[in-house]
Amino acid sequence: MKTNPNIDDFAACNNPVVRKFNEFLDARGMRKTTERYAILNRIMAINGHFTIEELQQMIEEDGFRVSRSTVYNTVELLMDAKMLRRHVFEGMQAQYERITVPHTHLICTTCGKVKEVRDTNFAAFMNARRFTAFNTDHYSLYVYGTCSTCARKSKRTPHAKDDAKSKK
Fold first, then answer.
1. 20 to 30 A Cα–Cα from 147, which one of 25, 99, 104, 112?
2. For 56-113, what is each residue's pLDDT tens digit?
């Protein structure tokens, strides 16, 4: 079991993520609470996407009790601070991820698996692109299709059905 975060440790922390969150809270005149830091601490340890339910379960596994509304509210604060991004992939529950380098999401419409890929050519194209009367902060690209695992399964399935029909 991990120990609960200490607010004083976070207030003096040199980690750029924690420093950014501290500055955001200070600028808004908001309190720095143990619960907010427990949530931030847990999110910093997650690589990839997560749901609110998964996040709350991880925090509880760390031995820290926090209400679902506090988790939701803190996640909203982190999105306002441009530290988290919310994704709603087609037919799926909302997922969140830390904001890192721009990347593309490949979403399998069969199994729901989400894969992240970085395409330097696409990133260079988007960074060079200028839009009239619009300043770009970030971009998000979702590509829907079938993953290789599901494609292999679907290729095997018709043959199995044909074999079953021929045996009748």
1. 99
2. 999 999 888 899 999 999 999 999 999 999 988 877 788 899 888 888 889 999 998 8
- Measured from the Cβ of residue 53, the count of other Cβ atoms closer than 10 Å reads 11
Round to whole Å and give the CA distance between 71 and 83.
15
pLDDT per residue as tens digits for the range 100-141: 888 888 999 999 888 988 888 888 888 888 888 888 777 778
Token representation of residue 123:
């990133």
Cα 44–Cα 111–Cα 158 angle in degrees, nearest 5? 160
Alpha-carbon gap, residue 57 to 53, rounded angstroms: 6
Q: What is the DSSP letter of 5?
A: P
Which region holds residue 91: left if phi is over 0, alpha if psi is between -120 and 50, else beta?
left
Say how far apart CA 153 and CA 130 lie, in whole Å.
Answer: 43
Enclosing H/E stretch for 144? strand 141-145
pTM over 0.90: no
Tokens coding 20: 């950014």
